[in-house]
Amino acid sequence: MYLEVKDLTYAYRAGQEAVDHVSMNVEKGEFVGVIGPNGSGKSTLLKCIYRALRPESGSISLCGEDVLSMSYRQSALRMAVVGQEHDIPFDFTVEEIAAMGRSPHKRMFDIDGREDRQIVADALRKLGMEELSGRSFRSLSGGEKQRVLIARALVQESDLLILDEPTNHLDIGYQLQILELVKGLGVTVLAAIHDLNLAALYCDRLYVMKDGKMVLEGRPEEVLTPEEIYRVYGVRSLVERNRMTGKSSITFLPEHIDLQELESGHVA
Predict the structure, then answer these.
(1) Chain centroid to CA 216: how far?
(2) Residue 257: CB partners within 8 Å, gap ≥ 6?
(3) Could you read off the pLDDT of 146-161 as tens digits, one per residue?
(4) What's the CA gap between 147 and 182, in Å, rounded?
């Protein structure tokens, strides 16, 4: 098992578990998504895995090693994170932001060498940001900032890439661009994803959370059925196999649509 989470629990307040005895696993090379309604515990689960939060109980192992007993430098060498927030307290260039990913590989006061600079340049080129390397990070669009943060994660040269809703607040063009880039990297990915159609398009497997619990797991076509979508989200839907992608395509249905008329083809 590559990444294994067992019986993980975390509560922001006593008796109110945001993550309630959750177990999951990710195999090497997989793109695994975590989906669920707002407040279901997706981000909290990921924060426990990448150690922004300390779980109250349970275990997290990476290639058989206990993540929670690692030093923060060791865990940073093993997993890289791209979160939802773009706030940077000081004005750095694109190249400087990406180069921060080399920090776990250095001792205090070490400066970047030729190899470090080459790794940064390669990552920025791979993400299409090489020509903007000297630009202020603050001057970039949301999609450009996200690409720089993914470049920073790649520069860490970690075994696992964790994405916390990486396409949140981006328009559809950037959403597709970011996930297409990540999918093409060939790395192991664990991502919280808000959009079910994007989850169906890019994920190998899905875990579904609701009220802090893991309620379902499987391939997208097994998980994203009208029955399960209604059970988890309380929304009716039509799920079809897209002829172009071969993946599930979900249409959400308002309450005034009569399903029987829709299925019979009589809806105007």
Answers:
(1) 18
(2) 236, 267
(3) 889 889 998 998 889 9
(4) 10
The CA R_g of the chain, rounded to the nearest whole Å, is 20
Are 100 and 152 in contact by the 8 Å Cβ rule? The answer is yes
Burial profile 62-73: b = 16 or more Cβ within 10 angstroms, e = fewer: beeeebeebeee
Tokens of 112: 């970047």
pLDDT tens-digit series, residues 114-140: 898 999 999 999 888 889 999 999 999
Q: Do residues 111 and 126 lie in contact, with contact meaning Cβ atoms separated by under 8 Å?
A: no
* Residue recorded with tokens 């791979």: 126
Q: What CA–CA distance (Å, rounded) separates 190 from 169? A: 19
DSSP-derived pairing of the beta strands 31-35 and 188-192: parallel
Residues of the chain with pLDDT > 70, as a percent, come to 94
Please say whether the beta carbons of 45 and 129 come within 8 A: no
Give me the phi and psi of 189, to 5 degrees please. Answer: -130, 135
Question: In sequence order, what are the beta bridge partners of 60?
Answer: 5
Q: What is the pLDDT of residue 260?
A: 64
Question: How large is the average pLDDT for residues 150-173?
Answer: 87
The residue to which tokens 């998504």 are assigned? 33
DSSP three-state, residue 241? strand
Instruction: Determine contact, residues 78/158, Cβ cutoff 8 Å.
Output: yes
Question: Residue 246 is encoded by which pair of tokens?
Answer: 């071969």
Which phi and psi (to 5°) does residue 148 adopt? -65, -40
Q: Is the pLDDT of residue 268 over 70?
A: no
